[in-house]
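Entry type: protein chain
Record version: 2
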Amino acid sequence: MKRLMIFALILVTAGVVVAQTDKDFVSTREMDRINWMEFRDIVPSKITTVLLPTGTLEPHGVINNGADNTAPFAMAKTIAKRTNALIAPTLSYGITGSMEAYPGAFQITEAAYRPFVKQILEGLAKNGFRNIIILNGHGGGQTAVLQSVAAEVATEKRVRTLVINWWSFASDETKEVFGEDGGHAGWNETAFIQAIDPTLVHPEKYTGPEMTTANPPPGTWSAVPSPSSIGLYQKGQGFPKFDKAKADLYYKKVTDKVANLIVEIVKKWGLAGL
């Protein structure tokens, strides 16, 4: 009995050690939830990387209009500790484009968006972040603007920037998990949201392929507004399905890949003395 008690005590002690090891050294990774004094004590002495989720509000088939914000913010929360980063508040309004006519969508012009984003990035640099990582959830013209502005700030403020379009970067994982390509609000993006919060997914509203349109080959045709809120990257592939197990697997593979890229790029920046 005495040996059993000693063994149990060892296990409990080991558990405490593990718990203490797993405990983060900051109260939160979210910038808008942290106190200014704690921020002062950790940036840049202990944390030099910030994750900025960007998206927009636009229709996404049978998932939430804010999917482009939901996805990068959830990703940021998943990988923040692993990348030793803080999370800046999500930039939730963006350059929506051809989806702006749908109910609940918002469109910010490039003329308004570009200087606003630049001032945010400059503010992050001013606050001591050396590595500014934009986790972008929305494509179209917004991608080019983010890349351009990030490059300007990197040069002008002597910081390091990285812009990641998660769905493009994870195209191999899309085909690996689902066996086919995805789409805007297609199987891949729907699954990503399903893994984050299944209550944001409404399978009962999906009536079939008539709700989708395949993206046209470049230079062939274009339509405004977009005829469907589900845009397939390839004809006949990426129709939304609602497999929770595959959704969870996909989320893990994508977030792991994004985290590994950030760690790799930051390490190489350091090795190069940049």
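Comment: Residues 1-21 have pLDDT under 50 and may be disordered.
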